[in-house]
Design brief:
Family: Belongs to the methyltransferase superfamily. L-isoaspartyl/D-aspartyl protein methyltransferase family.
Radius of gyration: 22 Å
Membrane topology: Lipid-anchor
Region (Disordered): 302-323
Pfam families: PCMT (PF01135)
Number of strands: 11
Distance between the termini: 39 Å
Number of helices: 11
Structural class: alpha/beta
Order of helices and strands: HHEEHEHEHEEHEEEHEEHHHH
Strand order of the largest sheet: 5-4-3-6-7-8-9
Largest sheet: 7 strands, mixed
Protein name: Protein-L-isoaspartate O-methyltransferase domain-containing protein 1
């Protein structure tokens, strides 16, 4: 069984395939997907499966198929400064990508049923901030995760511009989800075997659009004895950033902009490691689906013509591989980090500007 696109060799390869199949359609979504390696969210020993377009589950840890996440990211229509709520936030993979787009003046909250998964998500978020060079290329809205059942959210909770629910929503819970949304906001959730985009157009009006046929495990309803009160989930407060934090954001932004202007003025083009070019045959979407875990995934079928085309280009691929081997490759440099380290500042202040990063 396969997914909607062919398997990739690494994260960039996977994104190339998602773009080719038109699951990723905008530059900002592509940049977010490339910035965060899907393989980093897999347990050791399972990373080989990270770049297949398949869902993955191990215990309580779960990742949806990449084609599902890309459709969700596109349907949310994310912009800087928006507030986002992830119901069933899981590993935090999606929330972290959202944070790269909505930026430091957005709101990024997640609710997850399992405590061990919230701890896993916090660890993965910490690893991304401290170890990934991609972090320095963006202004980031750090996700905040809380443990709880997303069907028990406090009735006086604030509303959000964008909401995603990562579990199947029963019809009688649809209105519950809608009231969490601001007027003009967008809610994406699986309901009645369809990934659905809902836009709140007024106080009591909504517009719905089906995006993709899917099959998600349903939301878990909390079981309790008669008369027992539910454990109400309190969403994180919306806080104002401190002056110290604002200073860090603007200093990093200024240095990043200066580095960009300097490289453009000098005509510098940073050459990065190149991979062997692989010719791919364009695949088309078809209305055939297969079950993978608890999700229904589109199944792609390759025609005889596509297979024949791949054979014809085999010799060309081998020639490209030999040619690239002769190209001198320059190591990519984290310019922002180098600029901060060169500033005449105390080491403690440099560490703060670098978010205490380890690399």
């Amino acid at each position: 069984m396969g997914g909607a696109v062919s398997a990739g060799e690494d994260n960039d390869d996977l994104i190339d395939n998602l773009k080719e199949a038109q699951y990723i359609r905008t530059e900002k979504v592509e940049q977010a997907f490339r910035a965060i390696d899907r393989g980093d969210y897999y347990l050791d020993g399972y990373r080989d499966s990270a770049y297949k377009d398949l869902a993955w589950k191990h215990g309580n840890i779960h990742l949806s198929a990449p084609c599902i996440y890309s459709e969700v990211m596109e349907a949310l229509k994310l912009q800087p400064g928006l507030s986002f709520l992830n119901l069933g936030s899981g590993t935090g993979y999606l929330s972290t990508m959202v944070g790269l787009i909505i930026g430091p003046f957005g709101v990024n909250h997640g609710v997850e049923l399992h405590k061990d998964v919230v701890e896993y998500a916090r660890q993965k978020l910490d690893d991304f901030i401290k170890n990934s060079d991609s972090f320095d290329k963006f202004e980031f809205c750090e996700p905040v995760f809380v443990v709880g059942n997303c069907l028990e959210i406090s009735t006086d909770s604030h509303q959000y511009d964008r909401i995603y629910c990562g579990a199947g929503v029963q019809k009688d819970h649809e209105n519950y989800m809608k009231v969490l949304l601001k007027i003009g906001g967008v809610l994406v959730m699986p309901i009645e075997d369809q990934l659905t985009q809902i836009t709140r157009t007024g106080q009591c009006t909504w517009e719905s659009k089906n995006i993709l046929a899917v099959s998600f495990a349903p939301l878990v309803q909390q079981s309790r004895a008669d008369g027992e009160k539910p454990d109400t989930v309190q969403l994180p407060p919306v806080t104002v950033r401190s002056l110290q934090d604002l200073s860090r954001i603007y200093i990093r932004r200024t240095l990043r902009n200066l580095a960009s202007e300097d490289s453009q003025g000098k005509g510098v083009v940073q050459r990065v490691p190149q991979k062997r070019k692989r010719r791919r045959c364009r695949r088309r979407r078809i209305n055939t689906y297969v079950f993978v875990g608890n999700q229904l995934i589109p199944q792609m079928v390759e025609s005889e013509e596509e297979e024949h085309a791949e054979e014809e280009h085999k010799e060309v691929e081998e020639e490209e591989e030999r040619d690239i081997g002769d190209i001198e490759i320059l190591k990519q440099v984290n310019v922002l980090r180098e600029q901060i380290m060169a500033l005449p500042l105390p080491e403690s202040l440099k560490a703060y500007l670098l978010y205490y990063r380890e690399k």
